[in-house]
Design brief:
Elements lengths: L2 H8 L8 E5 L2 E7 L5 E7 L11 E4 L5 E3 L9 H12 L3 H5 L7 E5 L2 E6 L2 E7 L4 E7 L4 E7 L2 E2 L10 H16 L8 H40 L1
Antiparallel strand pairs: 1-2, 2-3, 3-4, 4-5, 6-7, 7-8, 8-9, 9-10, 10-11
Helix pairs in contact: 1-4
Length: 226
């Protein structure tokens, strides 16, 4: 058994901490981020945006925030950023000591990123199976799907990236057995973080949709009562 496979399957690890912080503009959901400090999304107070409920948010060690405001009304983005900055700055120290497995990179936009070999695997939970995409700086890539009990991974597709073959075989094996292992095993811990992130995101979107559906209905009723 390779050392990387042994690490992913057997090394005990605490659950990834999900931080939820109430702010004047909504609730922030954050996980550790090995490429920044923490990342996640903001479940905006519904009345602040009628069409985009959960912009991505990244927090850096220096205190800089990166809010994905591309789908927000431009005039409110500076206000949102300032309110979030003031709410999150007191938590920077706690973000810096958040525990995470060494392979873990981040969870953003419904995707889990794990460091594997010379590159990284991006995983999406597609409601019944995991879609996996591995790539590295040399633009090599491998795509496969993991279903309960089997996967479409084929080691023959690793031609030209022999140095990463063992690491890819290891992550595929670990993902196949993750849901059958103890909750403290790294791979399962990371998948649980992805699923919780997706659950929180869906919940926030549903609340936003319900708010605006009720808002529209109330206006229709007002118009009909005139």
């Amino acid at each position: 058994m390779s050392s990387s496979l042994h690490d992913l399957r057997a090394r005990p690890y605490s659950a990834l901490p999900i931080t939820r912080i109430q702010t004047p503009v909504g609730t922030v959901y954050l996980l550790p981020d090995a490429q920044a400090l923490a990342s996640g999304f903001v479940a905006l107070t519904p009345e602040l945006s009628d069409h985009h409920a959960t912009p991505d948010l990244t927090v850096y060690p220096c205190g800089r925030l990166e809010l994905d405001g591309v789908f927000l009304v431009p005039s409110i983005v500076p206000h949102l950023e300032e309110q979030l900055r003031q709410a999150l700055l007191p938590h920077l120290a706690s973000f810096q000591v958040m525990d995470k497995p060494p392979q873990f990179l981040n969870v953003r936009s419904r995707a889990l990123r794990i460091r594997v070999g010379s590159g990284e695997v991006l995983l999406r939970d597609e409601d019944g199976y995991l879609a996996a995409h591995w790539t590295n700086d040399e633009l090599a890539e491998v795509n496969w799907a993991i279903f309960p009990g089997h996967s479409t991974f084929n080691a023959a597709r690793c031609a030209g990236i022999e140095a990463d073959r063992e690491a890819l075989i290891a992550i595929n094996s670990a993902l196949l057995t993750a849901d059958q292992t103890d909750t403290s095993v790294q791979c399962r811990v990371m998948l649980q973080a992805l699923r919780q992130h997706t659950h929180d995101l869906d919940g926030a979107i549903n609340i936003h949709r319900q708010y605006w559906a009720n808002y529209s209905l109330s206006h229709v009723r007002e118009a009909l009562s005139i």
